[in-house]
Backbone:
């Protein structure tokens, strides 16, 4: 029997329709190992080609070379020298494309990914995320900072070298604002952070928990929009990614890598996106918002009904996906 499930925070509905189901192991992609070299002469992010990118705004040195670099995005959709002023064009509203876009080059080694990196490289990556998050949050015009990783062509990147991106914008879009309204209303009504309540409930029900560490929990959410959608939440209430302390950050690097290893080995290295959803800068310390990471393996494509209604049809039970990922040996 298909069922509707509601995301208790955003109030969005999904349809879980396992009649058309694939079992988790049927998602295993047909593709071969990526078979990439560890270094490429023509890769702008490989060591020796530093002049192909703008100078680093942050780096972690290792001996004579580097182990991580953050550089301005040369092909950024937004530019930092513009203004944020809104303008009219007849009845239409517009503004200059102000924003700051940076690329985090996570390792000098071309053919790694988070799942196959040394733990130190993942810790460096998490550290760089926080450093740049804090630096960009001091820029007066910035309202929202989004950190994300596109892995593979289905996830929107053709650049092979391991990298993440940060885009800081002067705009908080409705897609981000609406769940904030909902969680604020819930907090006004019940007096608590609804994310904290949801995490407590997931711990109680257990069936969708993939892994728990001292400070974090990884789950396949109750109302997952697509197969193997995974979220990592801090167990201590924090609205902003910028406010995690050193100990939590290292624990975060570990659970992020463990979760991506489960996806990498369990689902045979699928393309994916992950996004760190942190509160807008002005809401960096509020009771009603709770930061998290959402990981979306690209195993299905939203079609007409999804695009038309925003109601996603998920053919896999999140409980089965969590069970499957829990069992993967890492
Ligand atoms: Zn490279
Ligand atoms: Zn909370």
Residues:
């Amino acid at each position: 029997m298909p069922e509707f499930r509601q995301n208790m925070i955003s109030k969005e509905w999904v349809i879980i329709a396992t009649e058309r189901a694939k079992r988790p192991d049927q998602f295993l992609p047909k593709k071969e190992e990526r078979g990439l070299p560890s270094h490429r002469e023509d890769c702008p992010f490989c060591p020796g080609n530093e002049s192909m990118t703008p100078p680093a705004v942050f780096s972690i040195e290792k001996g004579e070379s580097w182990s991580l670099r953050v550089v301005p995005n040369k092909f950024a959709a937004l530019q930092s020298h513009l203004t944020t002023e809104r303008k009219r064009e007849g009845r239409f509203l517009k503004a200059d494309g102000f924003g700051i876009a940076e690329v985090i080059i996570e390792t000098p080694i071309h053919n790694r990914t988070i799942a196959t990196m040394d733990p130190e490289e993942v810790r460096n990556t998490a550290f760089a995320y926080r450093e740049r998050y804090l630096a960009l949050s001091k820029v007066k015009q910035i309202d929202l900072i989004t950190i994300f990783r596109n892995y593979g062509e289905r996830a929107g990147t053709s650049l092979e070298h391991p990298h993440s991106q940060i885009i800081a914008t002067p705009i908080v879009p409705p897609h981000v604002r609406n769940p904030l309204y909902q969680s604020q209303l819930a907090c006004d009504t019940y007096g608590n952070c609804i994310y904290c309540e949801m995490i407590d409930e997931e711990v109680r029900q257990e069936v969708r928990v993939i892994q728990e560490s001292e400070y974090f929990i990884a789950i396949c959410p109750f109302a997952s929009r697509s197969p193997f959608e995974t979220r990592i939440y801090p167990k201590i209430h924090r609205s902003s990614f910028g406010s995690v302390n050193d100990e939590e950050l290292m624990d975060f690097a570990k659970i992020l890598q463990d979760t991506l290893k489960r996806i990498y080995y369990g689902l045979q290295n699928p393309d994916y996106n992950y996004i760190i959803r942190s509160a807008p800068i002005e809401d960096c310390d509020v009771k009603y918002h709770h930061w998290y990471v959402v990981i979306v393996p690209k195993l299905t494509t939203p079609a007409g009904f999804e695009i038309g209604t925003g109601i996603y049809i998920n053919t896999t039970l999140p409980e089965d996906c969590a069970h499957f990922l829990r069992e993967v040996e890492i």
